[in-house]
Design a protein that fits this description.
By secondary structure, this protein is an alpha+beta fold. Among the domains are: 190 residues, no CATH class; 108 residues, Sandwich (Immunoglobulin-like), CATH 2.60.40.10; 112 residues, Macroglobulin (MG2) domain (Immunoglobulin-like, Sandwich), CATH 2.60.40.1930. The chain has a 5-stranded mixed β-sheet, covered by helices on one side. Strands 18-27-26-21-24 form a 5-stranded mixed β-sheet, with no helix packed on it. Strands 17, 19, 20 and 25 form a 4-stranded antiparallel β-sheet that branches. One of its GO terms (molecular function) is peptidoglycan lytic transglycosylase activity. It holds the Pfam family SLT_2. It comes from Streptomyces ambofaciens (strain ATCC 23877 / 3486 / DSM 40053 / JCM 4204 / NBRC 12836 / NRRL B-2516). Keywords: Signal.
Length: 609
């Protein structure tokens, strides 16, 4: 839900125009990418991106968030928005387990998506704004929140309208979606963005390790480089589509970049300001329509009910903090009531998703790629009504299924795409892994039970169409000896180096008889035994392959080593085993150049007189 900036100004507004201008000038002087006009209104820099993505496409569904800002005496530039009244001691460090989760997520993303340049401080900033760092660090040693953190139901009454997509599994609400967990994911986004951050075999939005890693992957999609300000702004806006949200997160990001410290779990300071109604610690309770949201049992055994983002359930012996007064409606002095929510009367507006009857293949055929290559064709799916009419603005989830390491660009196995005006959703490009064989990509409608549409894809092994020796030295050996030179070859495909191509080397009887030879040169296995066929060999990144050392038995002659590659390239290498030639004896007649010729001792052949 977009923040109500004017409401926050009313909450702590000063009564004179001069004071208002002073406050605006102070905010503007300390805000990244924010300026103020002569009337104290904030404006963004010309290059500040905006996002027109619908609520169901954001991480949080544009749910409410905390508006507390870093303290003025922080080592960072001062907050971007708000008034002096909202700049209290809102930051007292980051709880130990929560901080560990942020740093582990950064480390993993540095490994898997180095081009994203995700800083852990960004996760900390979003975690602060979304849930007050998991309600001040109320998590167990494994990172599970002590009680669920659940935002208000997104039923269209003051919030976005997002109907249930998870049958209440995560949010306990089988009618509408609620944002859940310390990073406040809506279930439909978690379904494709969720990751297992603590290696326990499951992804849980109520676990800070899982939620932090998932938030990192979410922010790193679309090839964004978060070291670039424009990409950073776009990523934050995609999390919650509000300029005020963007400025608040950027303020905390700068604050954490200047330094923070670790504090014990459960001792964090809870935020106060809220973007929806500013009711401090309590926040809006889930509407009665949040069926099934009956709470969860924490580590102490106490049952905790569903809570709004950042709401803290007091632990044993802790008093419940009083809720600050609700903002008044100007001119009346009385609290401004929220419109009541009647769960029995859901909005009658039919969404595009409600009209989808089935999915159709929008022309995708022949999904085949060589291992390591990108599939040339992208998967296209069309959403249609029962009458066959195309349906736009529908969220389609594409999921890679099967024993494969193929994934969409960026390494994700799941992607969510909205259909265009023609009802077509085009999945991101598929990238083949090293595992060969078939797998499935399944398209489903997010938020509606419609039969999925499966696409079959195949990964074939890497190939080479040519292979040749890199040297021309004759390969010779004496019986029972070893060849001095090792065989090195290079494989190419269409003239380019063919990397990771499988090569088989076999010592054969002859060019005309490719059966494995039973005598002559041989390789040795790890145990020193004779081997005349080698499999599992692969070229390196430059297409090169150096074979193991070759040995010879006592058989002399000329032999053939045949190398074949995936793709059919063949090379015959000649090997020669022969006795060493003796050194020629010196000629005694050449020992002394002055020596006189010796008289002949051969018998005379002339007849006797």
């Amino acid at each position: 839900m977009a923040a109500h900036f004017d409401r926050r100004l009313r909450k702590a507004a000063v009564t004179t125009t001069v004071a208002a201008v002073v406050v605006a000038a102070l905010s503007a002087s300390q805000a990244p990418d924010v300026t103020a006009d002569a009337h104290g209104r904030q404006t963004t820099a010309d290059n500040m991106p905006t996002s027109d993505a619908p609520s169901e496409e954001s991480a949080t569904g544009n749910s409410p968030y905390y508006t507390d800002l870093p303290p003025l005496n922080s080592p960072s530039p001062a907050p971007t928005i708000g008034t002096p009244a909202s700049r209290g001691p809102a930051e007292a460090g980051i709880p130990a387990t929560v901080l560990d989760a942020y740093k582990k997520a950064e480390s993993e993303l540095r490994r898997t998506k180095p081009g994203c340049n995700l800083p852990w401080q960004l996760l900390a900033a979003i975690g602060k704004v979304e849930s007050g760092q998991a309600r001040g660090g109320r998590v167990d040693a494994q990172g599970n929140t002590l009680g669920r953190i659940i935002g208000p139901q997104l039923d269209g009454n003051g919030f976005a309208l997002i109907k249930d997509t998870d049958n209440g599994v995560y949010d306990g609400n089988s009618r509408y979606d609620n944002a859940v967990g310390p990073m406040q994911f809506i279930p439909s986004t978690w379904a494709w963005a969720g990751r297992d951050g603590n290696a326990d075999g499951k992804d849980d939005p109520n676990n800070i390790y899982d939620a932090a890693l998932s938030a990192g992957h979410y922010l790193c999609r679309n090839g964004w480089d978060l070291s670039v300000q424009a990409d950073l702004n776009r990523a934050i806006l995609s999390y919650n589509n509000s300029q005020d949200y963007l400025h608040t997160v950027l303020s905390w990001l700068e604050h954490y970049r200047k330094g923070t410290h670790e504090i014990p779990d459960g001792t964090g300071t809870l935020p106060v300001g809220r973007s929806d109604d500013g009711t401090g610690l309590t926040g809006p309770s889930p509407s009665p329509g949040a069926t099934g949201a009956t709470g969860a049992t924490g580590a102490t055994g106490a049952t905790t009910g569903p809570t709004a983002p950042g709401t803290s359930t007091p632990g044993p012996g802790k008093p419940t903090p009083p809720a600050p007064p609700k903002p008044s409606d100007p001119g009346t002095g009385s609290p401004s009531p929220k419109p009541p929510t009647d769960p029995a009367t859901p909005p009658t507006t039919e969404t595009p998703t409600d009209t989808v009857h089935h999915l159709e293949n929008a022309g995708t055929t022949g999904l085949t790629a060589i291992a390591g290559d990108t599939f040339t064709q992208k998967i296209s799916t069309r959403a249609e009504t029962k009458a066959g009419q195309s349906v736009g603005k529908v969220r389609i989830r594409f999921t890679v299924i099967g024993d494969t390491d193929a994934a969409f660009t960026g390494g994700d196995k799941v992607a969510a795409v909205t259909t265009n005006a023609s009802g077509v959703a085009v999945a991101p490009a598929l990238v083949a892994g090293e595992k060969t064989g078939g797998f499935t990509v399944r398209a489903t409608v997010i938020g509606r039970t419609v039969a999925g549409l499966d696409y079959r894809a195949t990964v074939t092994e890497r190939v080479a169409d040519a292979i040749a020796r890199t040297g021309a030295t004759a390969l010779t050996c004496t019986p029972g000896g070893e060849f001095a030179d090792r065989v090195e070859v290079k494989a190419t495909h269409k003239g380019a180096a063919a990397d990771k191509v499988a090569v088989t080397a076999t010592l054969i009887k002859s060019v005309l008889d490719p059966v494995e030879s039973d005598k002559g040169p041989y390789f040795k296995d790890a145990d020193g035994k004779t081997v005349r066929t080698l499999t599992g060999l692969k070229t390196d990144a430059k297409g090169l392959l150096t074979l193991p050392k070759l040995y010879a038995d006592d058989t002399t002659g000329t032999f053939v080593l045949r190398l074949t590659t995936a793709g059919g390239a063949t090379l015959n290498v000649q090997l020669k085993v022969a006795e060493a030639q003796p050194e020629p004896s010196p000629d005694p007649s050449t020992d002394s150049p002055d020596a006189s010729p010796s008289p002949s001792t051969e018998p005379s052949t002339e007849p006797a007189a």
